[in-house]
Amino acid sequence: MGLYSKKSERIDTENAFKIGPQIRSIEEQGEKVIKCNLGEPDFPVPEFIKEEVKRQLDLDNTHYCDSQGILSLRKAIANHFSETRGIQATPERIVVFPGAKPPIGLCQQTYCDPGDEVIYPSPGFPIYESFIQYVGAKPIPVHLKEEKNFTLSGEDIDSAISQKTKMIFLNFPSNPTGGVASPDQLQDIATVIQKRCSEEVRVFSDEVYEDILFDGSRHHSIISCPGMEKITVLVSGVSKSFSWTGGRIGWALFPTVEEAEIFKNLNINYFSCIPPYNQEGARIALESPLRHDAIHNMVETFQARRDLVVDGLNTIKGIHCQKPKGAFYVFPNIGGVCEDLGVVEAFQSLPPNIRQRTSPATLFQMFLLFTYQVATMDRKSFGRIGSEHLHFLRLSIATDTESLKKGVKRIATASLDREGFRRFIEKKEHLY
Ligand SMILES: Cc1ncc(COP(=O)(O)O)c(C=O)c1O
Fold it and tell me: Cys-Cys with 239: which of 245, 247, 333, 407 at CB 3.0–4.6 Å?
């Protein structure tokens, strides 16, 4: 008998958090790192939300509260979902969580038994794949292709579905590709799911980037397709829309009250409840007319940065990058650089035990971090299975414009620095 359970060995992680100590160690040596790794808007929480949270603290609203989420917030969420998705959401079917992340694992624990299959996009948010292995289900990644603009079609989902399918994860706007889905595309996916799956399959629609859309486009949800409300868990929260990642407020609308009760009980077991003063802040975030300007100003800035970074990256030989339509990431293909700099070659000459833990994109990511002080994320941080030979990086544009300009310049210089890369590999440090 070992110290840790077998299950605990199977959980993966979100590397965007994991590279924090590496960044700190570089900064402790006096170098400033340009942080394009984290998925959090670099804006303050809007003033009207802060004021409400402070007011609630002064009212001593600081005690245990309803484990399902305070009713006033659940009502605001139900109204927001009903108005924006054209459905009839009710507060009884909503559960508030400490962020949009916890329902990912809690849903897998609740809906999946070992051996069940879970479909998810790859590249995708890493926690989907991480939890699938933890709960003993079988991961079925749907690989999004660059040549198809990283879109997901009904046909892609069709070929992934089997009799064992239990959950299907969707994420539009998408992390890390910034892809969005049109109503036709969502209907195409919904038609396949309804044709192939029983009503006991759950679609997990992660819409945490619902407000971050570029070029004037609007958000669309699969839950708006006829018949989908009864099988879809719709998830969102305040982290991205209101630049409030530290507030830890997210929520899910479940198909039935009975399911919401199960998740309420999980909250009782795990968290008891979510801070009520922050929940009141989230309520005002959804209800106040001031929300529109706050979101609009942030999205405008992201769009300008997106254009700057994508245009900059596309001038670098060996890199090409599509223009994302939403979220705040860019996802360049660095295949040319990996060839030109000798990254692929260096990868192939590593001992098998190290090769297993790294990839060419990881080596370039580490070279950028430790030699050029630019923090990015490698492709395998967004789904490991089948990603070893895919040469992409994710850059978050949620960092100030001047730093982004510098970051792109440094990447351009790094992409020509064969000698520097050779020295980096020779040191045999930080290879994964
Ligand atoms: C797709 C996706 N879902 C969920 C989350 C988690 O959000 P939260 O911070 O609200 O838990 C993130 C955060 O990066 C995300 O990118």
Answer: 245
Any ligand 1 atom below 6 A from CB of 237: yes
The finding on whether 171 has its CB within 6 A of some atom of ligand 1 is yes
Residue 139, ligand 1, Cβ within 6 A:
no
Give the closest residue to 10 by CA, choosing from 405, 410, 398, 384: 384
Task: Give pLDDT tens digits for 32-80.
Answer: 999 999 889 999 999 999 999 999 999 999 999 999 999 999 999 999 9
Angle (CA) 404 409 415, round 5°: 125
Residues of the chain predicted below pLDDT 70: none
CA–CA separation, 239 and 236 (whole Å): 9
What is the per-residue pLDDT for 289? 98
Q: Which atom of ligand 1 is closest in space to residue 14's alpha carbon?
A: 14
pLDDT confidence of residue 1: 85
Pocket test for ligand 1, best of 42, 144, 175 (most atoms within 8 A of CB): 175
Residue of the CA atom closest to atom 6 of ligand 1: 101
- Site to probe by mutation for ligand 1, drawn from 239, 279, 381 as the one with most ligand atoms within 8 Å of Cβ, is 239
Distance of CA 108 to the CA centre of its chain: 17
pLDDT in tens, 170-190: 999 999 999 999 999 999 999
Which ligand 1 atom lies nearest to the CA of residue 245?
9
